Amino acid sequence: MDTPLVITVALCGAEVSKEKNPYLPVKVEEIARDAIECYHLGATVAHIHVREEDGTPSSKVEYFAKVKELIEKEVPMIIQFTTGGAVGMTEEERMEPLKLKPHMATLNLGTMNFGDELFINTPDFIKRLALKMKELEIKPELEVYDLGMLDMVEYLVRNGFVDEPVHVDFVLGVRWGAAATPENLLFMINDLKRRNIQFTWSAAAVGKNQLLINTLSIILGGFVRTGLEDNIYYRKGVLATNQELVKRIVRMANELGRPIADINQTKKLLNIGR
What we know:
Shape: globular
CATH superfamily: Aldolase class I
Distance between the termini: 26 Å
């Protein structure tokens, strides 16, 4: 509880639409605006997806570049690009934004049924992504959606694809992935400890269990990911904004006596050197 709390805001993702929540940022300027405002509220990491003008998921490098430019012009926030993109994107499309050298990028650790779709991450692609990030000095965030993906964390560490300490994000509650329960979160944390892997961790949960998992993360000494990518409601029937979700985490952490990480503490905790 003495470790400063790193807050990641997942701004828009690839699945949610403005029809479901009109506060969802989809244009480049909207995404950057929400990130900047959330930084001033206490979030030091921005998890970035981009969209076309009509709101559909995009992999255009120029969109990622513009969001990065607009954010960095205003605040020293950690920029974390998705390499998950959206279901159906090619491997090359998903890798392309790495050329912009963000501070961090996500590394999804397995193929899975993702709701009614198939999210493909072959072992070969995972290793290629890991090596590319290592070459470009991009800190990977290892995305674990299910228990078997913990084996991939160990494989990447033991075979030199990623450097310790690794940063792991437990993504819970995706349909057909690991359920968003306290038992699953505790199992995953303890399993990595058992493997003697040096790691920091954050946790995210989809939908109504976002608040439960965020609260547990604060109490257990992990970091928090919140935002409209994972959950569009503040409470049942009440739509949220990214700003409101970040403010809630900060308020809860303050009540529980957990300090909020500033940007310099975030870089030190996540072992980011630039």
